[in-house]
Amino acid sequence: MNTQDIKTLNKIKSRFDAALENVDLPADLRAEKLCADKKKPLRLKARVKKSVVMSLAAVIALCVALGVVMHSSGSFFIVPLLPIEETTTAPYTTNGDEYPANFAIDPTTDTTKKSTTNTTATTDTVAPQAILADELMTKFKSRGELTALFQWFSGGASSTSERWHQLREQYGGVFNGKYRPVTHSWGVYAYTTLDETQTVLASEAPGDMVQNAPPDAPASPAPTSPAPAASAPADETRGEVGTTNNQVAGVDEIDYFKNSGKTLFISHTKFSSTRSTLQIRRFALGNNGKMTEITPVTVAVNEDGGKFSEAVVGLFLHDNKLIVVTEGSEHSSYRSSYHITGQRTTIRVYSDMDGAKPKLLHTSSQDGRHLSSRLYNGRVIVATNSWVGFSVDENDEIRPWKLIPEISIDGGKNRALPLDRIYCCVVAPEPSYLVVSTLDLNKKTLSPEHCAVLGAGETLYSTGDTTYIARSVYDYQENDTEDSTTNTEIYRFAVDGTPRFTGSGKVAGHTLSQFSMDEFQGKLRIATTLDERWNYNRSPAQRITKRSNSVYVLNENLQVMGKAENIAPTEEIKSVRFMGNTGYMVTFMQTDPLFVLDLSNPAKPEVTGELKIPGFSTYLHPIADGWLIGVGYPGNAWGETQGVKISLFDVRNPKKPKEADVVEFKGNYGETEYFSDATSDHKAFFSHPDMVGIVLQSRKYTREFVEDYTTNKPEINAVPPMTAIYNHKTTVKLSLRTYGVKNGKLVKKGVFDGDSAADYNGFGDRATYVGDKLYALMNNSIYCFDFDGTRLGAIKL
Amino acid sequence: MSASKDASFAALYERHQKKLYAYACVVLRSDALAQDAVQDAVLSAWQNLDSLRSVERFEGWIFKILANCCRAIAKKERRVCLLEGENIPDRGSDTLALSQELRDALEHLAQDEREIILLCVLTGIGGKEAANALGIKHSTLRSKRTRTLAKLREMLE
User: Fold this and answer.
1) B88-121: per-residue pLDDT in tens?
2) Residue A518 lies in a domain
3) Pairing with A351, which of A413, A531, B44, B118 sits 20 to 30 Å away (CA)?
4) pLDDT above 90: residue A118
5) Which residue from A minimizes the CA distance to B89?
6) Integer CA distances (angstroms), A766 to A267, A496, A686, in order
7) Do A728 and B30 touch (CB under 8 A)?
8) Per-position b or e across A502-524, b if 16+ CB within 10 A of its CB
9) Do residue A221 and residue A315 come from a single domain?
10) Are A14 and A102 contained in the same domain?
11) Phi, psi angles (nearest 5°) of residue B35
12) Among A439, A456, A473, which residue terminates a domain?
């Protein structure tokens, strides 16, 4: 371009710039409108005049319109409150005249454990119930329990729309007692079961828990060596079989990757344009590392636009049976957006897991989102969180449609859980249930048993016979004279047969993970961090200064019998592990103190030793008496963390823990970075009698010069904001790295590399072994290695 | 669809919204059609957001989509007019407060010439990217640009 051209262009440009300043953008085109709707307003084009053309254009316009609507409902656009569909399943109507059958309980009569179903409530019972409901409501309101419910509602979709604000106000009304039906129906419910629970609790003698512990349980697994319990007995010739890295030996935890010794099982979803197929892919393990895929087990198919869609949570293997747990939710346009329930967890059991055609033996489902599952001695334990379901009808009236969680067995009709299986937790009534089920696979006829408690859970710890579920609650102090704090509520269930709720307790602070809890000789130890993370009256700095950590020991009645408080003020727990009479705890602020706790006197736990090192461990793995492996992040004295760190702790002297050795993968930000899922998921940690390992992900970033704007475009004055274009390239490589321990040092055992790829698709970070072969699932491929690092085979998923 | 993706798309669009509308107004010479075109373009851009390789390329990318939408609408428009047996209506757009002289000059350009000039004056994208946006060769763009600028110079003298 010559100077003359540039001048002309600049001249026109300046005129355009001036004109652009004054452009009055139509309202429909403004970003906030257009990008919020992403929907073309429907209007017939102005240019169409004559009737013949009109019809033609109308067809075009209609097509455009339909297309738009289809897109909008398909993926990104949430249709605001359509008129409610008639909920035929609603057991309850808004006017309060009718009660669902299972609410028909007269609170004045003695509520024994018998449920008086199938009777209709008479009007006589309504009045006292309503009064009670009001009382309960006031209690709830002050506790802020129910507020959480409508916060969930309003947070569930884009809260910017006016409609949501209206809804919010409506809900505010609910909790002020404006809408009686919901409140009193479940007030009644709470009342009747409250009594019941107290009866139940009273009848449970203290120390019952200990009796429930398995004195008669045959050969309870040794606490130190990871037993390959839950899997099918392996072929003798193949030697030992790796299991999921479980917290409690023998209590198998649900995972998407399992190993039977003959076959690898991986849950995998196949997507096509119209459906997604949930499959359990199976890979038969041959000699010399040969892997052959055998017919996958198709668990379910989600059709696009279908009413219900599921996702596999994980699987278990037991006695040649494959157990698949899925979580699903309803998709009817109304329910999916505004109803809290409609979520269901399903258990499927297949026979002949290694064979050519596994057969579906059993299906059962329970309401709620999956919390966690365990398998112990052939008993599958599944816990879900199920919200009380209600909706808003066209008059913005609250309409409850599912007040009691439902279960279904072998495709049968959904039925409400019998009332004598439901408990009310005296500590914290909550508009949701915690549903716990057990399914005994050793029985001839498979039939799950359920129980539920009004409440909710976050973390689950199970010894196999007893399950503890904890959740943090925020105890809000309205008068502000006392500080509001986060506390942990604990629900205990006996799951050694028919599940039973056996009590609840409460400690200060919040837990980190399932490793924060441990039962030993009938006593529960729990480690918490006490802080004010939700107290926005204080600045973040103030919130930190008030932070501290504690370990509590709870007796058989879940009452605190011993505590060690105020450990590592201002820091927070990053990992915990209890082992018999000793506890280990890592906290972090800038450096990583490892605390050793002596718990041999449950009434007086105390910190015996402390070690400060940079970085912190997020997982602690006991390897032998007095030795621990820590996986976490390296750091410097300023508290910055990046990369992956493996530490070997020498804790033989509980007064003087030592970091005996360390392996770090630090990398450089923006060039090479290292990650490992083992830092956040203990199931990604590889454990073998001779070694431990992690799947390490390395990401290399490179850039390639493409074009320089400055040389290509000198003629136009408008200088673009950037002067050159680069192609950014990422190379991702996953490799399993294993270490043994020799003479108090970490010894590298092997590096098992996967192939490089352009990206990590987030699937695959597991490793296991069968005899002398090592199998690793890394970035969507399964690899088989010799223990010396030779790759024997690979299959891309 | 994540909220952050939503928000960043909205922010990117907002940065260019006036220019996009101005482009469509001048190319299609009708406010109503321009509105349709921008709406079509944004909708289609949103649906194909995955094909945007980097945020730096957003401007070139969305103008490419808009250019195509404008062409599609112009084509449809011509067909409708032919069906009606009418001449293509003489229209104008008052959205941009341009001088009558410049307006006339732009009116006298062919559609492809108008597209090139508009991309040059409205956007900050380079020649190569502009050529890509219009689906022509870089060399074609250069020669056409020189010719069009000469024409404009003559008319605006």
Assistant:
1) 555 666 777 788 888 888 888 888 888 898 988 8
2) no
3) A413
4) no
5) A47
6) 13, 30, 7
7) no
8) bbbbbbbbbbbbbbbbbbbebbb
9) yes
10) no
11) -60, -45
12) A456
- Residues B26-72 have pLDDT tens digits of 888 888 888 888 988 888 888 777 777 777 778 888 898 898 888 88
- A208 domain residue, yes or no: yes
Q: Which of B16, B43, B14 is nearest to A32 (CA)?
A: B14
**Partner residue facing A5 (CB), from B56, B102, B149:** B149
Q: Is the pLDDT of residue B135 over 90?
A: no
- Closest chain A residue to B46 measured between Cα atoms? A38
In contact, A695 and A736? CB cutoff 8 Å: yes
The edge-to-edge listing of strands for the beta sheet with A582-588 is: A572-579, A582-588, A591-598, A606-614
**Do residues A1 and A92 share a domain?**
no
What's the number of domains chain A is made of?
3
pLDDT score recorded for residue A50: 33
- Asked if A22 and A93 sit in the same domain, the reply is no
Instruction: State pLDDT tens for residues A170-214.
Output: 433 332 222 222 222 222 222 222 222 222 222 222 233 222 333
A743 torsion bin: left (phi>0), alpha (psi -120 to 50), beta (else)? left
ipTM of the modeled complex: 0.88
Q: End of a domain among A427, A456, A485?
A: A456
Sheet holding A343-350, edge to edge: A308-318, A321-330, A343-350, A360-367, A406-409, A415-416
- The residue that leads in pLDDT, A680 or A125, is A680
Residue A326's pLDDT is 93
Does residue A14 contact residue B155 with C-beta atoms inside 8 Å? no
Q: How far is A303 from chain B (nearest CA, A)?
A: 20
Return the percentage of chain A with pLDDT > 90, whole number: 18
The answer to whether residue A606 sits within a structural domain is: no
Q: Do A107 and A249 have their domain in common?
A: yes
Residue B89 φ then ψ, to 5°: -65, 150
Does residue A100 share a domain with residue A18?
A: no
Average pLDDT over residues B115-140: 85
The amino acid at residue B104 is D
Q: How far is residue A709's CA from residue B56's CA, in Å, rounded to a whole number?
A: 12
Distance from CA of B94 to the nearest CA of A (A): 9
| Contact: B121, A36; criterion CB under 8 Å | no
Contacts of A716 in chain B (CB under 8 A): 120
**C-alpha distance from A726 to closest chain B C-alpha (Å):** 10
Residue-wise DSSP of A326-356: EEEEE--HHHHHH-S--EEEEEEEES-TTSS
In this structure, of A305-319, A325-339, B4-18, the range with the lowest mean pLDDT score is: A325-339
Identify any residues that bridge with A438 across adjacent strands, giving them in sequence order.
A381, A449
Architecture of the B3-156 domain: Up-down Bundle (1.20)
- CA A265/CA A252 separation, integer angstroms: 15
Asked, for residue A380, whether it belongs to a domain, the answer is: yes
Label residue B83 by pLDDT band (50, 70, 90): low
Residue A298 β-bridge partners: A279
Checking DSSP bridges between strand A685-688 and strand A691-708, what pairing results, if any? antiparallel
Using alpha carbons only, what angle is made at residue A35 by residues A33 and A38, rounded to the nearest 5 degrees? 100
The pLDDT-based confidence of A37 (bands split at 50, 70, 90) is low
Model pLDDT, residue A790: 87
Q: Taking CA atoms, what residue in B is nearest to A709?
A: B126
A18 and A97 assigned to the same domain: no
Please report residues of A whose CB lies closer than 8 A to that of B103: none
SS3 content of chain B, % helix, strand, coil (to 5): 80, 0, 20
| Domain span including residue A11 | 1-26
